Amino acid sequence: MPSAGMTATDWFALLHPVLIILFVYPVVGATIRLGILARERRLDINPLPPTVGVEHADHGRWLTTGVVVAVLIAMAATYAMGSGGPAFPLLLAGAGCLASCLALWRAKGPMLRAGFALLCWFGLLGLGSQPALWHLGRSPLDGTVWGSHYWSGVLLCGLLLFAMAAAPETLRSPRMRRLHVSAAFLTALLLAVQAISGSRDLLGMALGG
Ligand code: HEM
Ligand code: HEM
User: Fold this and answer.
1) Ligand 2: which residue has its CA nearest to atom 21?
2) Using CA positions, which residue lies closest to atom 9 of ligand 1?
3) Could you tell me where the DSSP H helices lie in the chain?
4) Among 131, 102, 130, 128, which Cα is nearest to 117's?
5) Which residues neighbour 167 within 8 Å (Cβ) at sequence distance 6 or greater?
6) Coil, strand or helix: which one is 5?
7) Are 152 and 188 in contact (CB under 8 A)?
């Protein structure tokens, strides 16, 4: 059995999928359900309290933060399994991503919210492009982008961070709400794509690929 030979690094690498499965996907289900209820309330289809919208946005914040944390853990695991290189600048950038995401919970002004969301997202993209984390087949030029767990993962992070940053506008403006709902379809699709490509990559590792 492969589990007999699991090293500490292997266990650490399992933390990303386990966190996503145990914490992120259940929150995804609740977020989508509450989003639909918020819509039904707004359209007067269903007499619900206004708290469904508030709960939806709260679940969305936990979802976004959970995904950012799980992605940072995946990157740390990739680093631990790789050929090394200086860890300190990467740790610093990772801490910066986490801090920007946490600052999004508090930030009030639109510029500040946009700034923290972009800082967090660029931080993730910057980290992923470091030589210590850069995999073969990650370049957008070599044709494997569509099947890549990494590229759809960072795109998904961007969409979630955008939804979190723009939540007050989504609440107020019909135009932003339409944009949010369109982006939400893509977000839900990418969440399904991540489950497929992530499991595929795990299977590849188990088979020694
Ligand atoms: C899979 C992810 C998501 C889906 C499927 C989704 C879906 C929806 C839907 C269907 C609505 C109702 C729109 C309407 O009234 O016509 C909505 C509203 C809203 N969403 Fe999301 N959403 C998602 C993620 C997020 C995230 C991450 C946030 C922010 C943290 C967020 C914040 C909001 C806000 C503030 C509203 C307005 C609520 C209200 O009218 O009371 N959503 N969303
Ligand atoms: C919200 C969903 C998910 C997102 C946003 C996401 C994102 C990511 C990212 C960005 C990486 C690259 C880290 C790096 O090496 O720099 C990664 C790695 C990985 N993820 Fe996920 N992931 C998700 C769900 C899953 C699931 C459900 C599984 C397995 C069941 C999984 C398994 C893996 C594995 C095995 C790796 C390391 C190998 C590789 O780069 O493909 N992920 N993930």
Assistant:
1) 198
2) 35
3) 8-19, 25-42, 51-81, 88-106, 110-128, 149-165, 167-172, 174-206
4) 102
5) 57, 60, 61
6) helix
7) no
- Of all protein residues, the one whose alpha carbon is nearest to atom 2 of ligand 2 is 194
Q: Would you state the pLDDT for residue 1?
A: 46
Residue 139 is classified by DSSP as S
Which of 38, 34, 42 lies closest to 62 in space, CA to CA?
34
> How many Å apart are CA 42 and CA 44, to the nearest integer?
5
pTM here is 0.94
Q: Tokens 């399992």 — which residue?
A: 14
Residues 6+ apart with CB under 8 A from 49: 41
Nearest atom within ligand 2 for CA of residue 205: 35
DSSP 141: G
Shortest CA distance to 77 belongs to which of 137, 125, 127?
127
Residue count of the chain: 209
Ranges in the chain, pLDDT < 70: 1-4, 136-137, 142-143, 209
